UniProtKB/TrEMBL annotation:
Family: Belongs to the cysteine dioxygenase family.
Name of the protein in its database record: Cysteine dioxygenase
UniProt keyword terms in alphabetical order: Dioxygenase, Iron, Metal-binding, Oxidoreductase
GO MF entries: dioxygenase activity
Superkingdom, natural source: Bacteria
Transmembrane segments: none
Entry annotated with the keyword Oxidoreductase: yes
Amino acid sequence: MTNLVRLRDFVREFTRLVDSGADEARIFSDGRELLGALVAVDDWLPDEFARPHRDRYRQFLLHCDPLERFSVVSFVWGPGQATPVHDHTVWGMVGVLRGTERCQEFALPATPGPMVSTGSHALPAGAIDLVSPIVGDIHRVSNALADGVSVSIHVYGANIGAVARHTFDLASGERKRFVSGYENETVPNLWRV
Ligand SMILES: [Fe+2]
C-alpha cells in the first residue's frame, strides 16, 4: 500500500489555491511549493501509474478537478523515450519524482522554417519546471537516463488530456493539432482508508 494521503492533501490544497482565484503568477509561486512537497517524497504513487511501456512514454491521469480548472498527471519514461516537440496552451508545472528528465525548449521561427532552440536543462528528482504561453510553452521532454525509468508529476491549468494543442516538426516547424487523452481507465482512490 502506498501513502496516497500525500496526493489527497495535494489535491485538497491545490483546489483551495484555485478556488482563491490565484492567477498564473501565484499558481507558479504557491503551487510550486505544493508540488515540490509532493515530489520530495517518493512513497505515494501506486505502481500501476508508474510502469513504463516498452515502446513509448505514458501519461496517467491521477486527478482532474470537477470543474476542469486543473489536472494532475503522472508521466512515465522508459530508457530513450521522449515526447514530440509540443505546446500546452495553459500553465503547467512539471515535478520530477523519480530519475532524471531532460527538457529542451523551443520557440517558433519568425518566418516558416526549423524550430528555434532556446535552451536545454536536466531535471533531477525533486526539480520543478514551468511552462505556459507566458513563460515559454514549447518543449520536448525526454528521459535523461539511458538505463532507468523516470517519472514526473505534472499539474496543468485545464483537463489537459482534453485540450486541443499542437506538436511541431523540428526541421520544418510544421504544426499539427493533437489531443493527448490519458492512458488509464481508472484513477487512484484518494479516499481509501
Ligand atoms: Fe510538456
